[in-house]
Specification:
Blueprint: E1 3-7, E2 10-13, E3 18-25, E4 32-39, E5 46-53, E6 58-60, E7 68-72, E8 78-83, E9 92-100, E10 116-117, E11 121-126
Length: 127
C-alpha cells in the first residue's frame, strides 16, 4: 500500500523557516514525481512545487520561487521542501502528492495528475 506522510509543519514567525518532509512508502517504482500543494483558509488548493526522480526536474510557482528549495534524502524516499522568509500569506495546510513515472513540467504542477496524496501538515506564519 502506497502511503505519503507529511511532517514539519507548525507555527513560525514571519521571516522564519520550516522544512517540510514527505515520506513515501510502498512505492515500488524508482521513478516518480512528487508535487507540493497548499490550501489556505478560504482559498483553492494551489500547486507550489514539483520534483521528479531520477531526472531531477524541479518546478516552483512564482509565489515561492527564491524562498523554496526541494531536495531528497539518499534513499530517495523522502522529499524535503525547505521554505524560507515565510510570511503570513504562506499560512496553509501543505500536502504532498506523488505519481510513479511522472516527469514534472517546468511551468506548472498538475494536481489531477497525482495518484497518491498525504493528509497534509499545517503551517501557520504569524506576523
Amino acid at each position: 500500500e502506497v502511503q505519503l506522510v507529511e511532517s514539519g509543519g507548525g507555527l513560525v514567525q514571519a521571516g522564519g523557516s520550516l522544512r517540510l518532509s514527505c515520506t513515501l512508502s510502498g512505492f515500488t517504482s524508482e521513478s516518480w514525481g512528487v508535487g507540493w500543494f497548499r490550501r489556505a483558509p478560504g482559498k483553492e488548493r494551489e500547486g507550489i512545487s514539483c520534483i521528479s526522480h531520477p531526472d531531477g526536474t524541479t518546478y516552483y510557482t512564482e509565489a515561492v520561487k527564491g524562498r523554496a528549495t526541494l531536495s531528497t534524502d539518499q534513499t530517495k524516499h523522502t522529499v524535503f521542501l525547505q521554505m524560507d522568509s515565510l510570511n503570513p500569506e504562506d499560512t496553509a495546510t501543505y500536502y504532498c502528492a506523488a505519481r510513479p513515472f511522472y516527469l514534472c513540467a517546468q511551468y506548472r504542477v498538475f494536481s489531477d495528475a497525482m495518484d497518491y496524496w498525504g493528509k497534509g501538515t499545517p503551517v501557520t506564519v504569524s506576523s
